[in-house]
Sequence to fold (131 residues):
Amino acid sequence: TVTRHLVTDTPDGDIRLTPLAADRCLPANPYTGVDSYTPPAAMARLLMARDRTCRYPGCARQAIRCDLDHTIAHPEGSTCPGNLGALCRRHHRLKQTDGWHLTQPQPGTFIWTTPTGHTWHVTAPDPLAPD
Fold:
């Protein structure tokens, strides 16, 4: 089991880790979830740092040049890191093509399923690894 944590700075300069429920986004928090379609700037920066590139297998388009796509379409899907990912425009459109499916079982882990049933698992890169 993977436990997700909200990372926040404390007034004295320490870092606080707060466990998050695996299936929930926290609304009204710029890092964990909001009610709007568009993610706030802080969440967008978090996602671009997490994903680094388009989350399609083998695509090297930098996340900063990608759309932040809802894995489950808004408003059914939340605007939160566990339902958003960087997709270049080409792969954003591909995801919406009949027969293609994308799931995000954990924030930053994407499973692509092709029309023929093949699956690809794409995980967020190690945040400490060089580009």
